[in-house]
Amino acid sequence: MLRLLNIEFIKLWNNRASKVLILAYFILLAFIALIAAIKFNIGPIKFHLAELGIFNFPYIWHFNTYVAAGLKFFLSIVIVSMVANEYSNKTIKQNLIDGLSKKEFILSKVYMVVVFSFISTLFIFVLSLILGFAFSSFTESYIVFSDLEYLFAFFIKLLGFFSFCLFAGMLIKRSAFALGFLLVWYMFEGLIRIVLNVVESTKEYADTITQFLPLNSMSNLIKQPFSRLGAVKEVASQVGEKFDFDYAVHWYDVVIVLAWSSLFIFFSYRLLLKRDL
C-alpha cells in the first residue's frame, strides 16, 4: 500500500497543475473561517453571521461539512487528470512494463481517493473544532462531540464522488471530456427528477427512485442545514411557515453511496483489464 501511495504522490508532486489545485482546495476550505468575519451594517440593523449560531456546536458539524462538500470539484479535477495523464503521457504503459500489475495500478488510484477523502475530513474536523471553540455558545464535551455522523457522511460522500471521478477518467481518458461527462450526468439526473415529478403516476415515487441515482444519493447524505438555524425558523414562523425537514444521516443513504463507490472501482478495473495498452 505505501509503495503504491508513494508512486502516486511522486506523480502528483511532479505535476504543477495538480499541486496548485490541491493547494487551492485546502485554502478554500480554510476560507470557511472567513464567514465569521462577514458583517453587514444597514442603518440600525447589524448583521453578523457568526452571531447567528452557524459555528455553534453541534450545528457546526452539519454546516461546515455541507459547505465544504461544495468545494470537492477542485479535487475532482485532480483525480480525473491523475487518470487521464496516465494515458496521455503513456506512464500507465511504462508502469506495467516496470512490473506494476493492472490491479496494483487501480489500487494506487483507489488509495489516493481514500487519502484525499480522509485528509479532507480531518481538515474539516480540526477547522470546525477551532471555529466552534472560538464562537460557539456551547462547549460542553457531550455537545461538542455530538452529531459527528456528519463528518462520517462527509467522508463517504467524498469517497463516492471521487470514485465516480476515477471511473470517468478511466472511461473517457481525456480530462476535459471526463469532466464534461460528470456535468452531463449531473444534468441527466436532474432531468430524471423533473420528469418523475411532472408525470402524475410517478410523482409520489420520485424521491424513492432518485435516491438510488449516484450523484443524488451522495447529495442525500448531507442535506441543507440552513433551515435548522434559529434565526431562519423565527423568520419562517413570523410569515406562517414551518420547516419539517429530515436532516439525519441515514444508514441506507450510506449503503447506497458505498455500493456505487464499489461499482465505480470495479468498473474502472474491468475497463483497464479489457483495454489493449
Q: What would you note in describing this structure?
A:
By secondary structure, the chain is mainly alpha-helical. It has one domain. Helices cover 70% and strands 3% of the residues. The protein is built from 13 helices and 2 strands. It has a two-stranded antiparallel ribbon. The longest helix has 34 residues, at 102-135. The protein is globular, with a radius of gyration of 21 Å.
The percentage of residues in β strands lies in under 5%
Shape: globular
- Compute the gyration radius: what is it? 21 Å
Helical stretch tally:
13
Order of helices and strands: HHEEHHHHHHHHHHH
Outline the biggest β-sheet: 2 strands, antiparallel
Total domains? 1
Structural class assignment: mainly alpha
- What percent of residues adopt helix (DSSP H or I)? 55-70%
Mean pLDDT: 86
Number of strands: 2
Low-confidence stretches: none
Termini, distance in Å?
24 Å
**Order of strands across the widest beta sheet?**
1-2
Could you provide a short overview of the structure?
The protein has 277 residues and is mainly alpha-helical. It contains 13 helices and two strands.
